[in-house]
Amino acid sequence: MNKTLLIIKREYRSRIRKKSFLIMTILGPILMAGMLAAAVWIGYKEVEKQKVLVVDDNQSLFAEKLVSSEDLKFEVVDISLQQAEVLLFNSDYTSILYIPSNILTANIAKFYVKKMPGPIMQRRIEKQLEQIVEAQKLAINKIPQEIYDRINADFHISPYKIEAPGKESKVDDDKLGVGMVAAVLIFFFIFSYGTIVMRGVLEEKVGRIVEVIISSVKPIQLMYGKIIGIALVALTQFVIWSLLTAIIFVVIQLVFFQDFLDPSKLADVQMTGEIFNQNKDDILNAQQINPYLQDNILNRINYPVMFGMFIFYFVGGYMMYASLFAAIGAAVDSDTDSQQFMIPVTLPLIFSYIIAFTIIKNPEGPLAFWGSIIPFTSPIIMMLRIPIGVGDGGIPYWEVGLSMISLIIGFMICTWVAAKIYRTGILLYGKKVNYREIWKWLRYK
User: Fold this and answer.
1) How much is the pTM?
2) What is the DSSP string of 3-62?
3) Which domains does the chain have, with CATH numbers?
4) What percent of the chain is predicted at pLDDT more than 90?
């Protein structure tokens, strides 16, 4: 055990002292926080000023009711669509809104643009025209607006899960987005650091360094020492990344996005005052039906459980896959030869990543259950589901326990198989290894 600890310390210290590790550990959070900040900035700044040329084939019946604002101006002209297209490219107009004569039956208007505006601006134009057409239909059918408002319902189904009579809990599917982030992180760390283990073993084998090391320690000690040492490097980098990313993003938010935190300014960016007032009742009703929408999704996560499960499934998944990667590195003599063995090892990882997009829509279905139980897919699939909760209203305790036990058993089997391959292949040079040869190694006593 002392020799294994020495190898762990050697792997850990040698890797965290590398310039590449220090650079990526510092640059990683800056890049991640920068990309998040850029995404938010672009989302808020996507609204460009629009000067819309309106052509209405209904004698301006609809066009005159369009309301302009500071960044969205409508100008009604009495010309044909063909003439408007010519005018568009010889003026400062940005687009043409064409309202056909059959709009009340077709419910379609055409929007011609020089450059496509963002979805927020498109929805603002669409919403205005939709309300005008709706009001015109009510007038034609002699239906008072107040009666229509009472009849028209923006209906929502609010799902609750019942564990027992009188024992219910709100189903919060938004949390699965956080689970998806955790699942992607586990996928990234297992794959990237597993590959580092394989290349580290391969470099020591090709450089004949391993011959010197093996004279002092057993192959199994060397394999475990390398795997655990690199695992500690991965955990160190993850913790530093998480802390620095959170700090940097909070600083960026406070320094550069203070204006965006003001609800009044958000309303100016996303909608005009008229549109906001028209939809005020709908917004308030939606908040009453779904009160949890008023809270940030990040405030509804059970972080102690989330963090504990992340550590367990990362360590368990990494140790299982890293042992197989180490076995591949010990069996081959070059990166080219490793490709044939990499495919079957990485396929479960890739498969679990693909089915995660299906499971996020049905986190309690059969696919989610078996994906959480099978050791090769459980690190990703279970982490995807964990944010919805464990126990009451969430994943049953027995299911989580079975998943954890199966991962431990899978880890023990994989490391036993990897150790037998590692012991034989680490000192084997100049021979092309195939699956039949590896099967022979597994049968050696």
Assistant:
1) 0.65
2) HHHHHHHHHHHHHHTSHHHHHHHHHHHHHHHHHHHHHHHHHHH----EEEEEEETTTTTT
3) 50-151 (3.40.190.10), 173-252+294-443 (no CATH)
4) 9
